Amino acid sequence: MRLSLLRQGFDFTGREVANWFPGHMARGLKQMKARLRNVDCIVEVHDARIPLSGRNPFFQESLGIKPHLLILNKMDLADLSQKKRIHNELKKQVVHNIIYTDCTNDQNIRQIIPTITEMIGSSNRFHRTENPENCILVVGVPNVGKSSLINCLRRLHLKKGKASRVGAAPGITRSVLSKIQVSENPLLYILDTPGILSPHIESIEAGMKLALCGTILDHLVGEDIMADYLLYMLNQNNLYSYVEKYALDGPCQDIESLLKKIAIKLGKTQKVKAITGIGNVNITVPNYSAAAYDFIRSYRRGEFGQMTLD
Ligand SMILES: Nc1nc2c(ncn2[C@@H]2O[C@H](COP(=O)(O)OP(=O)(O)OP(=O)(O)O)[C@@H](O)[C@H]2O)c(=O)[nH]1
Ligand SMILES: [Mg+2]
């Protein structure tokens, strides 16, 4: 297909995103509020591929009284040429302290503790002047790498092993854990927390982006539309390595035919019963969900290149 014929907008008509605010998120939020009094700084972790979408407004509003550092993690998967525009947008949202990180390669992790120390130093530690240790609350939506970050800090600064469980699906950390030490000098503890989504996601598009980054469960949005939106975004960003990966003739915009080709190439087909004029017959059809999942997972692994969705 000629590039000039690729679609220039995405039609969200008739689509919706189911809200996901399970019990452990409501409980986690309550636990976080209860611990806030003894916290000196809030570190909000978000996915660098969606620096503007999907941040829980609650983190800024009700936790916002303390110094606030925004960590844009998974920078290895994001398009960093957009940094300046993103910083300008975030400034408008009154976010001034931002660090990009990659927990899989320890990138920029060493900047975090000096930045936090400086922020706390210039803030008003009202209740806590007598206590020499600093306590940090890590917050963010699910699966952005909050627990990974804590483990990373601990390994780099204390040469200690993992203290918090990490996993590829959203919803791994279920409650506010006990204090985890991440540095000796300055003495610094971090509270890990469960990923908490906004009870009302701002738009279908934001929900779609959150889902593509793995922060909401796929089925709440639907793999088929996520795959379609991903294809649209790859084309918009001139990232065409999917053409080679799936041995296509050229860039395309018809998700159904793409998923069919992916399914056949990966051998992801299934037998279904069809009722015909001569009775029931078994026919082989492409497994569209499995194909969509492969397409989405490849993006999440960075196989199509670095792409920022905002
Ligand atoms: N590519 C990449 N993957 C990362 C990075 N940091 C974390 N991950 C991966 O992201 C996934 C989620 O990491 P977690 O640390 O469990 O995320 P979390 O925010 O604690 O998730 P919840 O506890 O579910 O809210 C894991 O598969 C990590 O290996 C990063 O910088 N880059
Ligand atoms: Mg976690």
Automatic annotation (TrEMBL):
Gene Ontology terms: biological process: mitochondrial translation
Membrane topology: Peripheral membrane protein
Gene Ontology CC entries for this record: mitochondrial inner membrane
Assigned keywords, A-Z: GTP-binding, Membrane, Mitochondrion, Mitochondrion inner membrane, Nucleotide-binding, Transit peptide
CDD domains xrefs: YlqF (cd01856)
Sites where the protein binds GTP: N73, K74, M75, D76, N143, V144, G145, K146, S147, S148, G195
Top-rank taxon, per record: Eukaryota
GO molecular function: GTP binding; GTPase activity
Cell location: Mitochondrion inner membrane
Domain CP-type G residue range list: 26-199
Family (UniProt): Belongs to the TRAFAC class YlqF/YawG GTPase family. MTG1 subfamily.
Function of the molecule: Plays a role in the regulation of the mitochondrial ribosome assembly and of translational activity. Displays mitochondrial GTPase activity.
Protein name in UniProt: Mitochondrial GTPase 1
Species whose genome carries this gene: Leptobrachium leishanense
